[in-house]
Amino acid sequence: MALNIKRPNGTEDVIPKNVHKWHTVEKIARDTAESFGFGEIRFPTFESTDLFLRSVGETTDVVQKEMYTVMAKESKFTLRPEGTAGAIRSMLQNGLLNEALPQRVYYIVSCFRHERPQAGRLREFHQFGLEMAGSSSPAADAEVISLAQTLLNRLGLKNIKLYINSIGCPACRAKYHDTLRTYFSAHKTELCETCQDRLIKNPMRILDCKSPICQEIAKDAPIILDYLCEECSNHFENLKGYLTKLGIEYNVNPKIVRGLDYYTKTVFEFVTTEIGAQGTVCGGGRYDGLIEQLGGQNTPALGFAMGIERLLLVMDKQGCDYLTPKKCDIYFATMGDAALEKAMELSKSLREYGYFAEYDMMNRGLKAQMKYANKIGAAFTLVLGDNELSEGKAKLKEMEKGEETQIALDDKFAAAFEEVYFNKIMDVMETESGDGGLLSFMGGDK
Ligand code: HAM
To answer: Do 340 and 424 reside in the same domain of the chain?
Structure first.
């Protein structure tokens, strides 16, 4: 019977043969964040809807069109459309901001936005994100951007361009809003319905509208960089200086306003042209007013998030390396019940040592078992039958070269296997140039 319930549109499955790609990104992301002093934070998948209204902003596309909101009894909850709001809510609720500053957290979370699915744009997607709270210095902006750049480099990604902009503070933005209102008022009737409303409430959001007509009108709109106050302007200049010192190439793009309302001063995006229209792999910026807006003390903060699915699209496209998935170290081919029981016992002891051991659970004949061992790429096989059991020893076969080693089936089996295993590693190290072969033989992690 055909499966008649499929996964929802805009969601993806990750099956075991592909999960090593995710592990690669997650591991390198964690290691990188931790090397910059960030600690992992975990927070709920859903939050009170108000949290997102007050942070992401009521006039954003995310809040107006894309949130998954549910009524549960009398409470209204929303599946997180992004990580910042939940991370900051959690930092506040757990008193992290009363501890030594800056506070630095990172997260790997699923996010939900009801957008039109296309390559690189999903309804459930995953973000690696991080937030730093407490520093108003442009050095912190440079640090966070440098972290993002380091991570992209460590993932092996190339040709990803960094775009930066400053969208000022509430003071300079008030003047800019007036100018924008005047500009867009001349095109009022051509704007989409949502943007007509934004014209009054938050004209900067029109710059971010996805409607082609609004985008066309926005092309010639005045840019915020011309309206920055002295402090915002100095902050931006200092950031550029730090980026240059760090050897990080950047392009100033005055059109970047970001799709979320909480940003102030620096905003940035890392963009690729290699995966189609959804090429922004990382977006972030400073949000100096958010913490206070959510009930905390006035605390400057900033961060970014990367879309993991988008990172993987680019990594696949560019042929980046992934951690090698773990392969079977030893397969026991068994004949009869007593041999099967022995295989169970030996596997148990090997697994205590951290090896990946497997034996037949399908009642296959010997030939079919060996075919299976080949198929799964077992590094070693060991045939167990009545003879081997009565003699208390068996032949351990190294599958690549076919070399056999006699091994006792006693309580020193795991230690003896380890010795043969490490001899093989030494062999691989001597014959392979580089460590690609070794890593693949060792299943990446051992
Ligand atoms: P964002 O730009 O909305 O920022 O999302 C960050 C990244 O998530 C995007 O650059 C993209 O790679 C990925 N992404 C967003 N929407 C989708 C989607 N529908 N499908 C696949 N990937 C997607 C934020 O979320 C901010 N919270 C980032 C931040 C953290 N700013 C400061 N701290």
So the answer is: yes
